[in-house]
Amino acid sequence: MKKKIAVVTLSSAVAAFYCKQLQELFGEHMIVEKYSLDNNSIKGTIDTDIVVISTDSIYGTVKKYIKDDCEIIITSITLSKIGLEKITEIPKDKKVMLVNLSLEMAVETISLIYQLGVNHVEFIPVYPRIDEIPDLDIAITPGESRYVPKNVKQVIDIGHRVLDINTIIDIAVKLDLDDLLKKHKIQRYFKSIVTNRYGVEKLMRLTNRLESQFSILLQGLEEGIIGVDLEGIVYFYNESAESIIGLKKEEVLGKHVKELIPQLPFEQVLYKSKSIKQKLVKINGCAISVNVDPITSDRNLYGAAAIIKRFSDAEKEQHKLRSQLLGKGHIAKYSFQDIIGESEVMNKVKDIAKRMAKSDSSILIRGETGTGKELFAQAIHNSSNRKEYQFVAVNCAALPESLLESELFGYEEGAFTGARKGGKLGLFELAHMGTLFLDEIGEMELSLQARLLRAIQEREVMRIGGDRVIHVDVRIIAATNRNLKELVNKGDFRQDLYFRLNVLPLNLIPLRERKEDILLLVDEIKKELNIDFKLSNQATNAFLKYRWEGNVRELRNYIEYLAHLEKKEIDVEELPFNCECINYIDNISSLSDFEENTLKRFKMNVGNKIEKYIFILKNLEESYKNKLRIGRRSLADNAKLKGVFLSEQEIRTILNELQSYGMVSISRGRGGTEITEFGLKVVKNL
């Protein structure tokens, strides 16, 4: 069955010329349709195997007529050798017109001539409806003589620009017609056109095995290609390689590849005469995918060719490349065996988490700071069916909204000012087949929550500045130390996203509620830090009674602090927290009848605002432990830090009410506020 190809150009004459070229080269193997914008020949959807578009400038106009599953090729053009010879015969330092259909096409043709090595002539672009025609005797035109001004004495028609070797090979391979590339008429065509890729011609002469080597050349023309001889001397190095490696041709050609680019495995290929496929190396801090193939003919080895490309396309060998990123940071280091704790409540949480690991559903881990949310996330990943794939973690509170969006979804080259050349792979794509851990999910902005929800529901993402949807298979584990349900009620977190994440809820237990694990953790941290000291009985008792607001993280910090004391035994006086307050609060007597009635009256009066009063009292209790007084501004800052909405005016009202019940004592001026004994009893009771 014949392949169908459509050629779309700005000019009908150019469309006819390109169609004629393709018919002559591929003959009975394809049907060629032509379309042009100057005669409005596109009436409906273009339904062919490939659409060849003459220039980037018309791509946006043409794209809406093309089927989604259709291959698109933007032509790479050149000149015939005969046309180029006509230009080289022009005297040196002569000024000439370059006449074409438009300013853009005239400039493109001038750039092409310069690329092909002609630099002894100065070209002035001329096109229809130009404001001022230059007064010049000679005009060069690529088949557009009708637009040459009448006052020009000498017109040199170099013929229409022709399809370059890149485009011909691309069309042949995409249509599975690459076996035709060895036909005499196509080889003859290649010899009739000019190419600035002299290395390609040399590579082609070195091999007769077109079926295997042409795929290398094809990809090399699209991406970076580097050719070396048997000694490892570089004789071919294209422009894409310059861009990727960061070295110019003149710095590389004729030099030994090992001296300049030691990361490329040429030596192994030349020594074993075997290909190396899909190797990932790092050059100038950029991950590069490399294929290196030996160049042979009649079982004789002539050298090797490397195809290099940036690791940015999700569709190109995704898993092979990503699996090599394991060990480069995107791995889960911990398992359930690394989670220390033998208490009944801790064992129950671990059992629940192990069962959750067998599922692919989203998990929402809730717990105070320092309770080990990421530790559990990594352990779940390593117990799941996804353990061979990436574990990718991102802290949603650590990045501003715009940066977090680009990290999660990636971006295309030129998507915004400062975008990395070649674009960037998003964390969703990087976590494909693995786990994406979203820490502090409660801090994510509402606008970004909507996009996250769609990615989780549809299992597809679109990069910033991109126009294609990328399928991803990712297991989501989210974590927060905030009450997401309360945030939903306040309108600060999307309800639909909350339900999507909260499929499997996992609540981590604070350290103060599993006191039997405290001393076990102390011993494990001491082993890990390679330190040795004993806690006295009083110090041990203080450790068990302390509230550990920062949980295991706070415990670890204190162990490190005690290690620097360089003492064999640590007594209670040397502990970095106030043990007298612990003992005092712990030994407070129960409420008297009067106090109990006062507390009932207090709870009845404050009603559903009681959480705000408790927040203030707990802050005052913490200040009391540290022998400090705290003012309204500090209380407001703490509230803001912990996501509690309290203005200084509200705090003033709350403190006055608490003082009226005898729970706090407010000093005059800047003396701050102190919790009373009754206030401490209330905190303990509530």
- In whole angstroms, the N-to-C terminal distance is 81 Å
CATH architecture of the largest domain: 3-Layer(aba) Sandwich
Instruction: Give me the CATH superfamily of the largest domain.
Output: P-loop containing nucleotide triphosphate hydrolases
The stretches of 5 or more residues where confidence is low (pLDDT under 50) are 202-220, 313-317, 319-328
What is the total number of structural domains?
A: 6
Task: Count every helix, treating DSSP H or I runs of 4 or more residues as helices.
Answer: 29
Extended strand count: 26
Classify the beta-strand content into a percent band: 15-25%
CATH top level assignment of the largest domain: Alpha Beta
Structural class by helix and strand composition = alpha/beta
| Proportion of helical residues | 40-55%
Sheet with most strands: strand arrangement: 12-11-15-14-13
Q: How is the main sheet built?
A: 5 strands, antiparallel
**CATH topology annotation of the largest domain:** Rossmann fold
Give the integer mean of the pLDDT values: 84
Query: If you compute it from the alpha carbons, what radius of gyration comes out, rounded to the nearest whole angstrom?
Result: 36 Å
Overall shape: elongated
Throw out a few tags for this protein:
686 residues; alpha/beta; Rossmann fold; Beta-Lactamase; 6 domains; five-stranded antiparallel sheet; five-stranded parallel sheet; 29 helices; 41% helix; elongated
